[in-house]
Write a structure and sequence with these properties.
The chain is of the alpha+beta class and 390 residues long. It is built from 6 helices and 16 strands. Strand 7 and strand 8 form a beta hairpin.
């Protein structure tokens, strides 16, 4: 359900007022978790499939439906533009929970939490290769390249002093690093969101039960792939070992997968935490939904146009949600300062509930209208030939 993107977008606004400036280089996706992801597993990098491919490291993603982390294998992805590099996503401890900051493409590698993903991503920048005019050159000391097929290579020894397998920044046991001024400046570059093959790669990983952390205990059987979405064959690389002991909190639903059916790769997009719940009373109560796959009409230019339309609507809705949450919080502060009676408090709460529901309804209608505009026009069937008279 493409409408599901609405709540994911709206939750994004809930924390924008309190996110530190250095964290805004990558916008926090509307998913918060109370315990951190497992350590990064140990695995080998598959062979680069050809010129122009950039390594995108694997990471732990969160499935709110199963309340479990799952591994998104590292893979090689063609750069969407000449000169663009990949800034990996990362988990960060903010406002009492772990939030995921989505990766992006841009002319520079920005801040990715100080996480050492390996293969050139050692916490800051990228040492696995560089662009020279319209060609990408690979550093053979940290990337797996077949020099008989890829000739644009070089060798620069990299001393990696960041050997930790920790997969998140901040919080208990997390990476204790902050972005440099240069990395903060890169957040103002022109960025491109993950491309369609990356979204498909994530969905493929989410539908694979063996990639759940509760099943593989931090050692995924598919740790890396040569191409996005290609989870079978000789180019699939398993993890050699887990990066550390996997110890999620007790009584998590994701800890008991034996009694749960396998994930269905073809299941519909997750409806998120708002299904079958009473109407929200406040903007801050919006819970996360899965981010849907990008438009895929088969026409790249049309897909880009649709994505731009979605991004503009997304920004507008985030601002509206942000303003509403701020206003409601100010109302609560005034009530506390005025020591308002119960009748007054109930009146304000009713108004807040009405405001929140109206905003949700308006945003849902906007999404529906956009989906209708993006639907391909129906083609009338060709006329039937006239019947021959006997």
């Amino acid at each position: 359900m493409r409408i599901a993107r609405l709540v994911c977008w709206l939750l994004l606004a809930a924390g924008l007022l309190t996110i530190p400036a250095q964290s805004r280089a990558q916008v926090a996706v509307g998913i918060s978790v109370q315990f951190g992801p497992p350590a990064l597993p140990v695995y080998e990098q598959p062979l680069c499939p050809g010129d122009g491919y950039i390594w995108t490291p694997g990471y732990w993603a969160w499935d709110p439906e199963d309340e479990d982390y799952y591994w998104v294998p590292g893979t090689w992805v063609e750069a969407p533009e000449v000169g663009f590099l990949w800034t990996p996503g990362y988990w960060g401890w903010e406002r009492g929970a772990f939030f995921f900051h989505e990766g992006y493409w841009g002319p520079h590698v920005g801040w990715y939490g100080g996480i050492s993903y390996g293969f050139g991503y050692f916490g800051h920048g990228y040492e696995g290769g560089r662009w020279d005019h319209d060609r990408f050159y690979y550093n053979r000391s940290v990337t797996n390249v077949n020099i008989t097929e890829v000739h644009n290579v070089y060798n620069t020894t990299i001393i990696n002093r960041n050997e930790t397998r920790v997969s998140y920044n901040g919080g208990d046991g997390g990476i204790r690093e902050r972005p440099s001024r240069e990395e903060e400046s890169f957040s103002r570059d022109r960025h491109i969101a993950p491309v369609s093959v990356q979204h498909q790669h994530i969905q493929e990983a989410r539908g694979n039960r063996e990639l759940r952390a509760s099943v593989n205990q931090g050692r995924p059987p598919i740790a890396a792939t040569q191409r996005p979405g290609s989870f079978r064959g000789s180019a699939v690389v398993p993890a050699r070992e887990a990066g550390g002991r996997y110890e999620p909190p007790a009584n998590r639903r994701g800890n008991n997968n034996a009694a749960r059916p396998d994930n269905n790769p073809d299941r519909p997009p997750n409806p998120g935490g708002n299904a079958n719940r009473p109407p929200f009373a406040h903007a801050k109560e919006i819970t996360p939904h899965d981010r849907p796959a990008p438009p895929n009409t088969g026409n790249p230019k049309l897909d880009q146009q649709y994505r731009q339309q979605e991004d503009r609507l997304y920004s507008k809705q985030v601002q509206e949600h942000q303003k509403l949450q701020q206003k409601q919080e100010q109302d609560h502060q005034r009530l506390a300062q005025q020591n308002a009676n119960e009748a007054r408090r109930q009146q304000v709460e009713q108004r807040h509930q009405q405001q929140t529901q109206q905003m949700e309804q308006r945003h849902t209608q906007q999404q529906q209208k956009m989906q209708e505009r993006q639907q391909p026009p129906r083609q009338n069937p060709p006329p039937k030939p006239p019947k021959e008279k006997p």
